[in-house]
Amino acid sequence: MLQPRRMKGRYGVAPRGFKIAVPDILGRSLISASPGNKLLNNPRTKASHVFQVSGASRCGIIGVRLGRTGYAMNKGSCLCGDITWEIDGDLIMMSNCHCSMCRKFHGVGYGTYVGVMADDFRWLSGEGNVQTYESSPGGLRPFCPRCGSIVASTSRDGSMAFMPAGNMEGELDRELDSHIFVGSKAPWYEIHDNAPQHDAYPPDHDVPPQENAQRLPETPGSIGGSCLCGAVAYEVSELSDRFGYCHCSRCRKARSAGASAQVFAAVDDFRWTSGESHIRHFDLPEGEVYRTDFCEICGSPTPTIHETLGFVLIPAGSLDQDPGVRPQAHIYVGSKAPWVEIKDGLLQFLEMPEG
Predict the structure, then answer these.
(1) Are 66 and 39 in contact, with CB atoms under 8 Å apart?
(2) Measured on CA atoms in the order 81, 82, 87, 93, is the torsion positive or negative?
(3) pLDDT tens, position by position, 224-266
(4) CA torsion angle for 119, 121, 256, 332 (degrees, to 10)?
(5) Which of 166, 196, 224, 275 could be disulfide-bonded to 320 (CB atoms 3.0-4.6 Å)?
(6) pLDDT tens digit string along 177-224?
(7) For the whole model, what pTM was predicted?
């Protein structure tokens, strides 16, 4: 039976009535739940695997190391490969955040983050290349300045490491703990799993929520969109009904998510309203037409214009209003991440459908 290693502080069986408080990627506590939470009811969790880490927050961190016969090595990287890392311990959290900031930062409906203890995380390359954007006071969001992928980071006190699940290369041996900020979720996305849902942070969380202010398009009747920091903005007079998810490995790393969520528009129906000069482009050397565009300030994905093909590929998470259209299908499900389960009933294609 796997025993917990000595951490900062002490370990032992937690007393009745304790709370679990795990910080998120920005260093704030993310999960707070009583012993009735499935984290502790997981059949692989043993009482001797519960440990407490002191000094991580005002209430400390209570974590659970699952009873496995060994640690699972897993690597992660950005799309271009400049920044890489690995973990060799069990995941202690996995959560989907639907807040407006995460939606813009990823360009999809939500961000999925996983966490490990800091001793189980190490940079392999490119740590000095990481660029950050402060989306809220003290909340730093890390990304690769070359390709725009979101990358790993450590909590403010250095006790834990967090990373987007979409950038991990292997299995993620953990079920989803929760959905947070579902009160802010995208109107075009519906939740189809049974993980606990919270309108904002979980109960007993003492950090005030942070959201983007509402942004309206310049032209009445159009649909607007913008990056997280607001430097790059656009509007479209009409969107196509071509809207779907791509599960290919390139899109997963480009969006740092389980899949990209893209909606199409005709080139003639699209225009930039500000910040076009702040957009960086990254072309994969081996990709014939694969390109990702992002804001150089905040790292958020921005629309990609394919002039020769006559369309604009818009990250759905960057939209500021309800697009009025809904996702139609999943493509490249033959390449989907092993931890992603598709339960929405939409059409699925192993690769790119014809036509």
Answers:
(1) no
(2) negative
(3) 999 999 999 999 999 999 999 999 999 999 999 999 999 999 9
(4) -120
(5) 224
(6) 999 999 999 999 999 999 999 999 888 776 666 677 788 888 999 999
(7) 0.80
Q: Is 288 exposed, middle or buried (0-12, 13-18, 19+ CB in 10 A)?
A: exposed
Report, as ranges of residue numbers, the positions in the chain whose pLDDT lies below 50. 1-25, 27-71
Tokens of 324: 């009025």
Q: Which one of 1.20.1250.20, 1.10.3720.10, 2.170.150.70, 1.10.760.10 gives the CATH number of domain 74-184? A: 2.170.150.70
What topology does CATH give the domain 223-348? 2.170.150
